Amino acid sequence: MIGNDWDNELSVIWNSKYFQSFYNKILKLYDEKTIFPAKENIFNALKLTPYNNVKVVIVGQDPYHGVGEAHGLSFSVQKGVKIPPSLQNIYKELEDDLGIPPCQYGDLTKWGKEGVLLLNSVLTVEKDKPASHKGLGWELLTDYIIKKLNAKNTPVVFILWGAFARSKKEYITNPIHYVIESPHPSPFSARNGFFGSKPFSKTNNFLISKKISPIDWRL
Fold it and tell me: N or C terminus of the chain: which is more exposed, having fewer CB within 10 Å?
């Protein structure tokens, strides 16, 4: 499915009849409706950041539902697409935290290559219908991914922005990991504690303290 070490880590899911049945239903939906991201980008986050390379996880909810936006990475949009408000606020906090000026595009692929798993809990969505695939079955896979990362014997930083992402904290029980929580970067909540939370420097300080190379957050 993925082509790297995630295939071994997720073999229980890939081989389960339940997931195979669910995934066939998802593929059928692509034939019937307009679904995002493109089929080949559904598992982009896993392809970009192999299991053994994961240093940081940023948990999102579901893909952007507008044309040309989603490409399989949480909070990220393809180059040439207008930067969404939440990502604009992430860039503002990044500049305030580390002095990195806001990027002119919203493609976070480089973060994925740095070891930041940009994981949405739901991996597909119907055009113009946010959260339309919530509860269909993706959570079986993505919750299992978080549990697998929790089982790693090397420290991982879990960045949980907003109530939905923070609900996944129950799966993060291994004391070697570091959880960063704050309100969501959405314009509706960013001023309630996201701004000033300094997640990027906290992440790097933790990684350095564990003798792990920090993330280069520049895009």
Answer: N
